[in-house]
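Incident log, structure service

09:12 report received: a user says their structure output differs between two submissions of the same chain.
09:20 pulled the input from the user's history:
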Amino acid sequence: MVRMFIQLDNVSNLSRYNCLEDAHDNDLLAAIKLYQQSFRLNVTGILDSDTVTQMMKPRCGVPDHVMIKPKNHGHQDDKGKSFHTVAHYQFIPGNPRWSNKQLTYTFISTAQVPDDLNVRSAFKSAFQSWAQVTDFSFEEVADGSNDADIVIGFHRRDHGDREPFDGFQGVLAHSLPPTAGTSHYDADEKWSSNSNPGLDELDLESVALHEIGHVLGLGHETGLREAVMYPSISYGQTKRDLNDDDIQGIQTLYNLS
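09:34 re-ran on a clean worker, output below:
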């Protein structure tokens, strides 16, 4: 069966740079409809206020890969082609996984973070949440270690990985799947390690929990706002507990369920 992966963030990026005003081709129209369907919005193919609001939310920089399977039923685009989207947890294309279950992590940053931000505690808690539902263990090693499996860092703008950050708001973080093991966070964001972040602050543990999901091989869950792997998070919001969908996804990926 033919399968395709659509990167929904391409539509979002076009919106950010006001490139959709003259877009009329059917492929882009279908992409907008797919974006709306995947985020449980009203499927119109029009950039209405709800769609634009969703596109402009602070979010993870990892692409939204939505698997489409041509079928004889389901939604139809303007050319009459039917498509079906998977409405639960997603894996990174290719289903990359770690074979080693005792992973180490280190911190290598090119930007400073506030002294009162308890970075290590936030990441330790986030790693522990994933360890509790898998057979992984995670151990911090000395900063700058060349032998660590996972490298965590805070950076600004262009930081050498061809995925520059965009400053306050927009993209908050991005991570690579197994076994690359990098997880980067935008130092221009206002991060918080408190359990009650301010309305202009991002909860570091919540975002770290999401990004570690990518490091372990999970993709975005665009259809369930309660899931940790949902691609966006609001300022002042906390998501420090894995959703059943997150747990089912990681256990299925590693054949634990």
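09:41 both user submissions now match this output. Likely a transient worker issue. Closing.
09:42 reviewer note: The two ends are 26 Å apart (CA to CA). Residues 1-8, 14-23, 68-87 have pLDDT under 50 and may be disordered.
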